[in-house]
UniProtKB/TrEMBL annotation:
Natural source organism: Oxylabes madagascariensis
Any GO CC annotation of this UniProt entry: cytosol
Transmembrane stretches, start-end: none
Gene3D superfamilies documented for this protein: NAD(P)-binding Rossmann-like Domain
PANTHER family tied to this protein: 2-HYDROXYACID DEHYDROGENASE-RELATED, 2-KETOGLUCONATE REDUCTASE
Protein name stated in the entry: HPPR reductase
InterPro entries reported in the protein's UniProt record: D-isomer_2-hydroxyacid_DH, D-isomer_2_OHA_DH_cat_dom
Amino acid sequence: MAEEELPAVLILDIGGTHGVLEDLAALLKKHFHLITMKEFLGNKEEMSKKIQSIFVFECRPTIDRELLESLPNLKVIGNSGVGVDHLDLNMISSFGVKVTNTPHAVADPTADIGMALMLASARRLVEGNVLNFLGPSYFLGIPHFCCDRDVLSESIFGM
């Protein structure tokens, strides 16, 4: 498919501090003609008619009434993060625009972090790690402060 035949999607930018990750942009380019916010603002008249969707990455670009009014052919806003608290769903739906979301995209990593925090808390891993970096001489005055004996030896921290 030629680039002109692909549906146009508005994104904040590619790369940089707040832009869509370059790998993700490459994937999007297979299915969409990407228009950055800078390109859009530089030529609103022409670009506004082409844009059919907005890809929101890390809550950007900000979706407000002015932006929605400037995009007459907008059909969908794709949100890449979990949760849509940053989007005014009532205002967006009043324009006849649908919103998509990825509610389970980070369920496994969130569970992993939760388990890691519980284990670190139960084993006082943070305190043990601090003591580990203070060096063996610091342990002489603190007998078995927060760690098992094997932590005081040269064993592996963790499980």
